[in-house]
Amino acid sequence: MPTSKKTETTSPAAGRRRELLATAAEVFAAQGYNATTVRRIADAAGMLAGSLYYHFDSKESMLDEILATFLGELWAGYETVLAARLGPRETIEALVTESFRQIDRHRAAVAVYQKEARHLADHPRFGYLAESQRKFERVWLGTLERGVAQGVFRADLDPGLAYRFLRDTVWVAASWYRPGGRHGPEEIARQYLSMVLDGMAVRP
Amino acid sequence: MPTSKKTETTSPAAGRRRELLATAAEVFAAQGYNATTVRRIADAAGMLAGSLYYHFDSKESMLDEILATFLGELWAGYETVLAARLGPRETIEALVTESFRQIDRHRAAVAVYQKEARHLADHPRFGYLAESQRKFERVWLGTLERGVAQGVFRADLDPGLAYRFLRDTVWVAASWYRPGGRHGPEEIARQYLSMVLDGMAVRP
DNA sequence: TAACCTACCTAACACTTGTTAGGGAAGGAT
DNA sequence: ATCCTTCCCTAACAAGTGTTAGGTAGGTTA
């Protein structure tokens, strides 16, 4: 969990804070975290490098807050889906759709997460990333295995491979997805699910 | 194309050069290009930072050579596949299999490519990356559309979306694939193709 | 033996990086 | 009018960055 300077998100100045985090996430996503200088962020925000340190106490804590708030909202959405206790196929469909909604809302954060998560997981401050990944695997892999047991998913596929396949196909979309494009998140989710579940080939 | 110091790859000292490039690619893949210091590479190679500049004239040219040699071998493999002039489905299958073989051989380079390609494409020196991506799209998207026209692929899917889907699912595997694991590249390709073409769901 | 080349080291350079201490302008509260 | 808070700027620091000039041990060639 990140250490937030302000007490609550409903603070009067929280708007400016979110605004700055949004531009920071945008630059992080475009250039990569390490390649992004704090002066570049300040430039995009219309101020000077030192001024950022009035709002945040380090560059790292910006990244922390960006990733943590994204993961917070993501898991809130997932919990809602899981609470419905749908069947395996319907659960997968709902999880994928929810994931694309999150990509729609947090495109930049997702792109940053996807690029930096792996080597950040070592860093103790970002331990919650690894924890989230474990929870993620438990939910998705569990649903897949439940589906195989119930005979709705094919049993001749390696579950671990299918899990990574599903996970990756969903999140890499953040690298090309642009909000306001031809397809909304629900439509993209529908087509993705159609390909993954029913296949791209014509049935014989 | 990269500017190679040595005239040919069959030089006597080319072995050491390839060795250094391999360790550099490994560190780049693990830490990211920008986050990797030239001293860290030298450390992994068992020498000091300055000594690297006997073999290469900059950190950037190391990255250049890593990516260029990978793309060179990749396209050599693709050309062989395309020269066979197979049907659309068989072409896709052969391209995916060849891609996983390249991941098997150039795991680190692929990981670096996937992480850095997007923001490197702007840099004029790495213009061949964007060119390769265009060629890539022409081949894959063309094969998909040919398949739809011949009735072997479903016509109710957005071709552009299917292309990105296929492309991403193949290359993200480099982020978790480890050579010498349970599945070889051909087996992984087989399962990937089974999921993408025939779907994960049980046929009704 | 002498000259030479290869492959590395030493030691420093110019520059960029994240970060900080102190100042100041604007505006609301008292 | 005074005080105080908010929000930003100025100016600099210390550490780390890629890179380079020159040196040197050891093997190869003449």
From TrEMBL, chains A, B:
It comes from the Bacteria. Residues 14-74 form the HTH tetR-type domain. It holds the Pfam family TetR_N. The keyword Repeat does not apply. The keyword Repressor applies. InterPro entries: Homeodomain-like_sf, HTH-type_TetR-like_transc_reg, HTH_TetR, KstR2_TetR_C, Tet_transcr_reg_TetR-rel_C_sf. Keywords: DNA-binding, Repressor, Transcription, Transcription regulation. SUPFAM superfamilies: Homeodomain-like, Tetracyclin repressor-like, C-terminal domain. Residues 37-56 bind DNA. PROSITE patterns: HTH_TETR_2. This is TetR/AcrR family transcriptional regulator. It comes from Streptomyces orinoci (Streptoverticillium orinoci).
